[in-house]
TrEMBL record:
Protein name as annotated: Enoyl-CoA hydratase
Similarity comment text for this entry: Belongs to the enoyl-CoA hydratase/isomerase family.
Organism: marine sediment metagenome
UniProt signal peptide: none
Key words of the record: Lyase
Keyword Lyase appears in the UniProt entry: yes
GO biological process, one term: fatty acid beta-oxidation
Amino acid sequence: MTVELSYFEEFAVIRLNRPEALNALSFAIIRELDVVIEEVATSNARAALIIGEGEKSFCAGADIKELMGRSISEQKQGAELGQRVFHKLSLLPMPTVAIINGFAFGGGLELALACTFRLATENARMALPEIKLGLIPGYGGTQRLPRVVGESRALELIMTGRVVKPEEAERIGLVNRVIKGDPLDSGASFAREFSGFGMLALGYAREAVQRALDLPVSEGLKVEADLSTLAYQTEDAAEGMEAFVAKRNPEFKDY
């Protein structure tokens, strides 16, 4: 398997292990990723960390040779496969963290954009360079990038295909943090900042924020009220408030 799944502490680790090809995405690898995502969805992991094998590349994007000479129906099916798998990743019940260690180009950056959070090592380089091939992103980049960095910056990055370094990526919100040291350890340290909270509340918070991007404020406030009300009905909420009053640490049970 080129997509490896392992667990440590409370985390699932999804590793793209094709360093000889800079962890590029073939259709076979995307299908492997699909299977792994389904397994993670039913696990007890409190966060999923995605990383590329080696120090050079998180994921260098699609396997270009595989994309050549395909019929129009095959091209559309390929785009829909990538979109479907990345969308499934975005819907995992636990938060996901892309640890961008090296190149994240094209489909690799689109994979990272489908995650809840993105971290970048100091040698990370990010781009959607499809325009240089006479193409546009096809695995969700045109939809997720503007939601992360805004319409104007997204258009600039997509229409120029230029490479973004970690400092700029953090400044424009493309990544949450620039990390130093061992990438996986840094990713786990970041995830520990939220993994101890109740999974229900984390899920409600994520849903409320993500739905806000597609709704007028008046409708988004209704969603927030509904999800906030649901959160109050959980035993975790009762435990959290009781612990606060008693000045002790809460023990969340995810129900």
